[in-house]
Amino acid sequence: MVNKLPGRAGVGDWCEMENHQSEERPTKPCEYDPNVNQDELIMAQEKQIAEEIKANTSMVGPLDGLGSLEKEYSNDPIYFSKVRTLLPKFSNVRRTRPDGNCFLRGFIFAYLEYCIHHRDELTRFKKYLEGSKEELFEMGFPKFTTEDFHDMFMEVVSDLEGSGSVGRVEAVCNDAGTSDYLVVYLRLLISAHLQKNAEFFSFFIEGGRTVEEFCKQEVEPMYRECDHLHIVALTAAVGVGVRVMYLDRGEGAAVVSHDFPEDKEPIIHLLYRPGHYDILYKA
Predict the structure, then answer these.
(1) pLDDT at 28 over 90
(2) To which H or E segment does residue 30 belong?
(3) Which of 102, 173, 215, 226 does the annotation list as catalytic?
(4) Quick check: is 230 catalytic?
(5) d(Cα 43, Cα 32) in Å, to the nearest integer?
(6) 276 belongs to the catalytic site
(7) I need a surface site. Which of 37, 224, 225, 233 has the fewest CB within 10 A?
(8) How confident is the model over 31-51, as pLDDT tens digits?
C-alpha cells in the first residue's frame, strides 16, 4: 500500500514507504519458521514498527534540556563522555521522528525558527522559493505535483511573515500534511542541485549509478535517509549554513563537527547519531 499525502494524483510517487529499511528502526528478533514467508514477515514487522513510531513520536518534539542526553547514555561511557563535551556549547535539544526524514524535518524546523527571529532571512528565503519552481520545471520535474509542494511552502512562509512564532513553527512542522509537503519540496531541491552539478557529484556516488538514478532512488522518495551528499546539495542550493555535531564511537574524546558549506557561518546546528538527526541549541 502506498502512503499518499493529501492532494492531487501523483503525490504518492514521493511517499512510498514499504521498501524502506532504515538504521533508525530497530529490528525485532524472531524464530525461523520454514513455513513462513520471511520477506513478508520482515515487511510486516517493519510496517508495525513504523506505525508505532508514527503513533508515539512527534515529527519535531518539544524543547528539552541537554541533560536528557546525559541520562540516556548514563550506562555508555563513550557516548556519555562525549555528550558532556557538548554541554559548554549547547543547552537544549529537539528530537525529531526517526522515520528517514529526520534531517529534513530538523532542517526545516530550525531554519524557520531562525527566520522568525531574523526577518531579513525570511524575506531572502521567500525570494529564493519564488524562483525555485520555474527552475524545477525547466529540469523536467512534473508541473502538476511540483506546483502543489511549492505553493504549500510559499503559504507557510507567507503565514510566518504575518504571525511568526515558535508555536506556529511547531504547529506547521507537526501537521502531517503540511510537514510532508515541505519535506518533499526540499527533496526536489536537493535532486535538482545534484543533477545540475552531475559532473562533480558523480565521483561520490557508488554502485555505478548515474546522478539521476541516485536521485530517483535515494533523494526524491520519502523516508530515505539523508547522507553527506544530501546535506552538501541542500545547503548549497538554499544558501544556509549548517553545523552537524557527530556523536558516534569514532576516535577522540570530543564530538567532531562539520560545517556545510565550509565557508559559511552556520545558523543551524544538528546533532547526528548513527542513522538519526536532532536539533541542537547553542548555550
Answers:
(1) no
(2) none
(3) 102
(4) no
(5) 15
(6) yes
(7) 37
(8) 556 666 766 555 555 455 455
